[in-house]
Amino acid sequence: MATIRALVLNCTLKRSPAPSSSEVLGREVLDALAAQGVDGELIRVVDHDVRFGVTTDEGDGDGWPAIRAKMLDARILVIATPIWLGQPSAVTKMVLERLDAELSETDDEGRLLTYGKVAGVAVVGNEDGAHHTIAEVQQALNEVGFTCPAAGATYWVGEALQTVDYLDARPKPDTTDRTTRALALNSAHLARLLAEQPYPPPDARSAAAGSSREPA
């Protein structure tokens, strides 16, 4: 069985050691992945000097290259984000912009380095917008080469106009627990399948398409 590692990027706006509901849910995803035999770690992005940009390294002490190295070493990437004004956090959007650089990074056979990697999303908030936030993040991750599994997201939103955060919503809500476990189960399953059966390189896809054409 292929060894699988996961990386959770906590895209909270709060630096450590401030409490973070995104971190709580992100670590619950890691626990659920551990139950599937997946090792992993969580990084709070704002604790690192990640620069704005769309390259793999913006230079001058940019914190992204070290995070990117961990992402490339992992088979599963999970973006954990709060909702602000119905949107993913600004940190999430910065991370997605940095991942745009992966469209120019390929292996020896022409595949994106993100091909074969699985992406999940974890969302928390005190307002509506979880489905919209998940859709934005999943679309962006898929566009830069990640594969999203079935039921590839988990979320919790509090009652509108109230102040309860996910980290205070104890005991853990059963519905969020179920979606977290589904995210972990399907992500680990898909990651192992892709590790054992990688996507074909672009030339192979072109050759296969060409061989099936009818003669003119």
From TrEMBL:
Question: Per UniProt, what is one Pfam family of this protein?
Answer: FMN_red
Judging by the UniProt lineage, the source's domain of life is: Bacteria
Transmembrane ranges, per UniProt, are none
Stored InterPro entries = Flavoprotein-like_sf, FMN_Rdtase-like_dom
NADPH-dependent FMN reductase-like domain: from which residue to which, for each copy?
6-151
Annotated region described as Disordered, given as residue ranges: 194-216
List the protein's name.
NADPH-dependent oxidoreductase
